[in-house]
Design brief:
This protein is of the alpha/beta class and 265 residues long. It contains eleven helices and twelve strands. The chain folds into two domains: 158 residues, Periplasmic binding protein-like II (D-Maltodextrin-Binding Protein, domain 2, 3-Layer(aba) Sandwich); 95 residues, D-Maltodextrin-Binding Protein, domain 2, CATH 3.40.190.10. The strands form two sheets. Strands 1, 4, 5, 6, 7, 8, 9, 10, 11 and 12 form a ten-stranded mixed beta sheet that branches. Strands 2-3 form a two-stranded antiparallel sheet. α6 links the parallel β8 and β9. It is globular.
Amino acid sequence: MGILNKLVAAAAMVIGITSVASVAQADEMDDILKRGELIVAVQTQGAPVSFIDKNGKQTGLAVELARMMAEDLGVKVTFQDYDWKGLIPALLSGKVDMIAADMTPTPQRASQLLFSRPMFYEETVGVALKDSPYTKWEDLNKSGLSLGSTQASSYSEAIKKYLPEATLKEFSGGTAAVAQALSAGRLDGLVSDLGNVSNFLNDFDNLKLLDGIVVKNPLSFAVRPDAFHLKMWLDNYVELTTSDKRLEKMVNYWWNTTEWEKDHK
């Protein structure tokens, strides 16, 4: 029995070593460092998170955060542009290493992906035409009203949950398409985040911000469900850049003010 026990223990050790080796071989962070490149999925359809600026450069809060991460890792960054509904399939199919976007880690998304600690938070708000009678976001919760949002977004979920009497209309062209539809009178209102809305109000002078905040959501970067090392690295990066105030500085520039406009629009 002593020999048998030793054989069983040896077999278990071999299995353990093989498992560890397999995990090491599948380490996505190792792959990024060996390749010298971080491949990131973005949606360059909505300032200030991700867009093409006046010089034709990809930029915005999510883009610049990913660019800073790559620089600190000592690798180059490559951005792949998708529409909103294409971001998660691109990640799950292995085309990219992570998603850098204003994505809320909802229970449905978190069942498919691993999310970092929140990079920043969004305040979801309501918008209507200036000449409409609506003054606060709750006024949009009426039967017969059509409210717009980005397709498959947390804004759509907010409309379903907090404005159930209205009719939801989703747009695949990003947040700018929703604002254009409202400005043209094809909608009665829209729901989006305050960062995007500040941009809308500059671009369309017939829109107004309604009083109140519908909901405040965390926004995170996403990686594949088996990318544990990269997820932990992202969490550590949030902690580090919070401590040295680089994250706060970047969020203030892109999200909490409109300072970026003079440099990029």
